[in-house]
Request: fold
Amino acid sequence: MLITLIVSVCLILSVFIVVDGIKNRNASENVIAVTGMAERNFESDLIVWKSQFTVKDQNLTTAYAELKKQSESTRKFLGTKGILASEMTVSAAEITKEFVYITSNGNTVSNFDGYRLTQQVTISSTDVQKVESISREVTELINSGIEITSLAPEYYYTKLSDLKVAMLANAAQDGYVRAKTIAENGEGKLGKMTNSTMGVFQIIAQNSSEYYSWGGAFNTSSKKKTATITVKMQYQVK
Reply:
């Protein structure tokens, strides 16, 4: 009697486990996987412009004195153009010993050719148009005898975190609409979301042929940019 009761209970439990397993398996099959996307055009509100000037002389003291003179002239030039002291950063001088190499009869000797001193000036400003204009007027310094090299400006956006959060919400809404459309057109009903994964945040130049990167593109060369983000989502279907 006791053995019969135990066997009956075991059979009931086995049936319950099998039925529950089939139910869970079917539930995992009745899902919709979609990718929501959001895209936003925006304009940079921060510009970073770097330039560097160089002097060379056989005597280090003379070279440093000339570098200091050029540094002061550069700061004065930038100040007259409206650059504030708080927007300007001047790096420490980089000193390099230079040599010329002469080969004769299979032997190479090096002769000291002087000291080259280089200093970099970095301008960071939210007045993008002003700095763009100044970067194009740098020839005035060259004409005054300063050997300066101007690099291309870099453009950034200070509200990038807020933009990303807003775009995530838009991408999630886009994914929901896609999933709902698929479910309803398949004579089903969209259930709750079971999983979601944020995709890569990409920033490229507007109307450009730049490639998206699997690790995320981050354009700094263009003032006007386009940001995109994706969200992978999974919903149950009733």
